[in-house]
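--- STAGE predict ---
source: upstream dedup step, 1 unique chain passed
mode: sequence only
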Amino acid sequence: MFLRCEVFDVERAVVRFVKYWNARVAVFGRDKAFLPLTSDGALKDDIESINAGYLQVANKSDPDGRAVLCFDFRKEGEDLSSDSLLRVIWYQVHMALRQESCQKQGVVIYVRCVDRYLDWRPSLTKKMSEAARGILPMRFAGAHIIHPPTFIRLILAVVKPVIGKKLRHRFYQHSGSIDNVLKSLQKFGLGKIDMLPTIFGGELTYS
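--- STAGE serialize ---
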């Protein structure tokens, strides 16, 4: 996975591998970091957060073979710990990486933002961005923010500096009716109703 993520650059893959394990111990603790990232392993105490649907993996990949993930940041307004939600992110990313096509082609992420600015958790967003940049063995194809709120600039102001120069240009915003959203997504190969998550009025379901 690490070699594919770094396009078989061995030196970069080794650097990411070391950062990954250091971060995994920090996120899960030494007692759980070396357990399998499963619901009955390292995530056995995070079932409620997994079931909340904070981050989910779609039941199918996009036309280019990329895994499709969906972040529902509205769940940050619920009574779930940030540490648990961060562990769920690691868990779901590894679920997506079970697909060989995901290891090769990367992931596409849909984003549903919080309703209220006060529900947003900046520290969790920062940790998530750091993991995406150079820790998790995941190739980030792009994030599609559907119906962004008026305060989206404040959120992106936290995300973009952390995620790095290369990835900060892969955030896209889509608004309007379902037809308008699909038309906007079309140039990314996501312009069909079966590639739009159900929470946005589409037909794409998640496991």
